[in-house]
Amino acid sequence: MGFASEKRELVRLVARYVAGLSIDRRFVEENTPPGAEGAITNILEDVKSQVLEIKQGLMICRLCGEGPFTRTGLYLHLLRRHGNELVHLVMERVDERIRAARKIGRLVAE
Ligand SMILES: [Zn+2]
Known about the structure:
The chain has about 110 residues and is mostly helical. It has one domain. Helix content is about 70%, strand content about 5%. The chain has a two-stranded antiparallel ribbon. The protein is globular and about 50 Å long. Bound molecules: zinc ion. The site of zinc ion has 7 residues, from helix 4.
């Protein structure tokens, strides 16, 4: 699997999660280091709260204010309009966690 197709898979996964559609657990398991499942779920939840706004029970895109969407409509909207933003948001969360882990590592080593 090349980088571009992995990125596409990641965008699809995050978009489905945000829209509340079922996600491919197998893809998550294959790409998750042992013990990191909780961290992955936290990252997905963080990104969801940044992307999804529920207004009077309707799904609105926080990134551009468009909506309301059905689950499938939001999923397609995120794929078409916000793919790179989704990757960026995930990478930000991952970087934060790596920095936090390094900090703990330094504290333990001192
Ligand atoms: Zn949008």
